[in-house]
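Workshop exercise sheet. Pairs work together: one partner reads the sequence aloud, the other fills in the structure field after running the prediction. Swap roles for the next sheet.
Pair: D.N. / O.F.
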Amino acid sequence: MNGCKIEELGSLNSLKGTLEISNLERVENKEEAEQARLSNKSKIFKLRLTWNMHREVETTNDENVLEGLQPDSNMKRLEIEGFKGKRFPSWTGNMVIENVSQGCWVPLNKLIEIKLSNCSECEEIPLFGQLRNLKSLWLEGLKNLKEINSSFYGLVNEETRIIFPALERLVLVEMPKLTEWAKVESPSASDVKVFPNLQHLEISKYKQLMSFPNYSWSCLKI
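Structure field:
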């Protein structure tokens, strides 16, 4: 949507397919974003959320606005572009959404594709490793990210022995401050499988990356 107010989406629960909401810098706060009622739109399978990446502002309300744009758990594809928050809010940070009627948090387990681009102020990446159907992950232009730490993989315990179980494509582009990509941290990390189905790995436009995880990468295609 472009040129309309975000609250106009509120009653359109029959929308289906792909929904793109642009110029989100015009949305003032979480409460205004919530009026779109994206969590009620169970037929939206691809969601694209964009801010003007060329805006020059010292402070933003991006984190609050994104907090209010929680989607339905049926979503399969998510794209976020131009977000200038330092951290992703709760539902994106943990890749779970709040089910108010049941009083619980529901994982976004139907996601198969995620793309984050030009989120230039972000200092951390959401917990993607436990998304069991995620096949494609594209991270580009996270220019303020200094490390990919163990939280990237999600919670690792006795019940979780496979990280990124379905991921086939991983693209990491243009993160000039990134110096370290950490391994999984677990008392029995040697028993944990990471990226068991990864076929395509692209890493480019890095200047300072000094530490790289030594996984088997056995399924990569050259």
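Discussion prompt: The chain has a mean pLDDT of 87. What would you look at next?
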